[in-house]
Write a structure and sequence with these properties.
Blueprint (H helix, E strand, L loop, with lengths): L2 H6 L13 H32 L1 H8 L1 H4 L10 H12 L4 E6 L8 E6 L7 E7 L6 E8 L6 H12 L7 H28 L17 H15 L1 H12 L5 H11 L37 H13 L7 E4 L8 E5 L10 E4 L6 E5 L6 H13 L6 H27 L23 H17 L1 H27 L1
Antiparallel strand pairs: 1-2, 2-3, 3-4, 5-6, 6-7, 7-8
Helix pairs in contact: 2-6, 2-7, 2-13, 5-11, 7-9, 8-13, 9-12, 14-15
């Protein structure tokens, strides 16, 4: 080849290269949109959850007269306490359940079904076990027997007091919280790997020397790492209560026969179905109204000789003719309390029993997860951790909005914060595009609200990019 030919030949085009960093750009974009658009839902859920963590102490203050009675050296029978409650309410009261006083100084809770209450509510009369004095009368909710205060805060956290439509907010918060946390972790790892060794300590604690955007970012990143496990846990357990994704969780557990065992109350040998979530929120079974008060003492004595050996128990008369009495442990602050018993009221023989020790591991994990999420598994320690994590999540959202505000352009008057640069998906490897698409579809099917909002994020992103290009072209 001659020199002339070399000079006049067109220069060779460089081989196309794949753009690096497309995945981190995608994560930043996802983290940004989820934080900005779903952040208000997470903030409300975190603050209401922090308030819910305090309800055991609040109940002790607000309902001290109902929950407690003077300590006594002797107690009257359950039959006498029920008789006192019956006399207080009148002859039309239908007895639904009895929860004997767990400790000296506590009251016995006698619960009744009553017209005008919802399917999950009952009327509770609080009786002094030493004298039979009526200490109070409250409407309580669900099998957990929540007081009105706890019920109000729970409904605020769960549905903003809007019923089933309001539950969409909490499902969005629970579903996106885990995704935002995982995306944040991935971005944190990328930044740590790129940072100098001496600067990596700043990623686990905020550097107080930094100001402005860097200072806010340091707090946001550091808090996020410390509460990561708590965020993932709250997200996973919160999803189990949700309307749409929760149904998928229940179906999955049912397919693996991993439901929570319940005693069979049918005295003719047929199986009964109490429902997966009956242990926590569902309605009380309708009582027959024909229970003999004197039988409660005998039923409790039998249960205590068998497997129900804690002071926190609930005794329920037969829900219908041909069914058994049930006694179950309701102490949720200890991880192994959950035994229950079915007793034939005619023969006083044990018809069925379920021991928590025999639960499948999935059922045990579900029980522990629910009680941890509610802040009751280990008492005060659980409440403190839950309260701190909830406040930290709320702080994360506020810091995220502050970072967004700091990034706003200021040269053209008032404008909101800019979005991170878009990922170059066309330059990504084929397997990367396929993996992103497959993960999006899988997550959308498992978490339906995430799928729909993710589609909404894409639409918003496209619109914003078109508007931005037109603005730049015009200027």
């Amino acid at each position: 080849m001659t020199l002339i030919e070399t000079e006049t030949s067109p220069p060779a085009r460089p081989a196309p290269t794949r753009r690096r960093g497309w995945f981190s750009a995608l994560l930043r974009r996802l983290h940004f949109y989820a934080g900005i658009l779903v952040g208000p839902f997470i903030l409300i859920a975190a603050l209401s959850g922090a308030l819910y963590a305090l309800t055991p102490q609040l109940e002790q203050v607000v309902y001290a007269h109902e929950l407690h009675a003077p300590e006594s050296d002797s107690t009257i029978t359950l039959a006498a306490q029920i008789a006192a409650a019956d006399a207080y309410l009148g002859e039309d009261a239908v007895l639904a359940a009895v929860r004997p006083a767990p400790d000296n100084g506590d009251t016995t809770r006698i619960m009744y079904a009553e017209d005008g209450l919802s399917a999950s509510e009952s009327r509770a009369v609080f009786v002094d076990p030493g004298t039979g004095e009526i200490r109070g009368d409250l409407v309580v909710y669900g099998t957990s027997g929540s007081t009105p205060l706890r019920t109000w805060i729970s409904n605020l956290h769960r549905s903003l007091h809007l019923g089933d439509p309001g539950r969409v907010y909490s499902e969005l918060a629970a579903s996106w919280l885990g995704i935002v946390a995982v995306a944040g972790l991935a971005l944190w790892i990328i930044r740590v790997r790129k940072a100098r060794v001496a600067a990596r300590v700043d990623f686990v604690r905020p550097n107080r020397a930094h100001r402005g955007y860097r200072g806010l970012f340091g707090w946001h990143a550091s808090i996020g790492i410390w509460v990561l496990l708590g965020a993932l846990f709250l997200s996973a357990t919160g999803i189990t209560w949700s309307q749409y994704a929760g149904a998928n969780v229940s179906a999955l557990r049912a397919s693996f026969d991993a439901g929570t065992p319940t005693v069979n109350t049918a005295l003719d040998g047929r199986e009964t179905d109490a429902g997966e979530h009956a242990h926590h929120h569902d309605a009380q079974s309708a009582p027959t109204g024909a229970a003999n008060p004197a039988t409660f003492d005998a039923i409790l004595a039998i249960a205590q000789r068998e497997n129900v050996d804690t002071g926190h128990v609930e005794i329920k008369p037969p829900a219908a003719p041909g069914t058994a009495w049930t006694v179950r442990e309701i102490k949720t602050s200890f991880p192994t309390e959950g035994d229950s018993l079915a007793i034939d009221g005619t023969t006083m023989q044990v018809a069925d029993r379920v021991d928590f020790a025999d639960f499948p591991i999935a059922a045990k994990l579900a029980s522990w997860g629910v009680n941890l999420h509610m802040g009751v598994l280990f008492g005060l320690a659980n409440q403190v951790v839950l309260f701190v994590v909830a406040l930290a999540l709320a702080a994360m959202v506020v810091l995220g909005y502050a970072l967004w505000w700091k990034r706003r352009p200021t040269a053209r008057g008032f404008r909101l914060g800019g979005t991170p640069p878009p990922p170059a998906l066309p330059d990504a490897p084929w397997w990367g595009i396929g993996a992103v698409a497959a993960a999006s579809v899988a997550i959308g099917l498992w978490l339906p609200l995430v799928g729909w909002t993710l589609l909404g994020f894409v639409v918003i992103d496209v619109v914003l990019r078109v508007v931005s290009r037109r603005r730049d072209a015009a200027s």
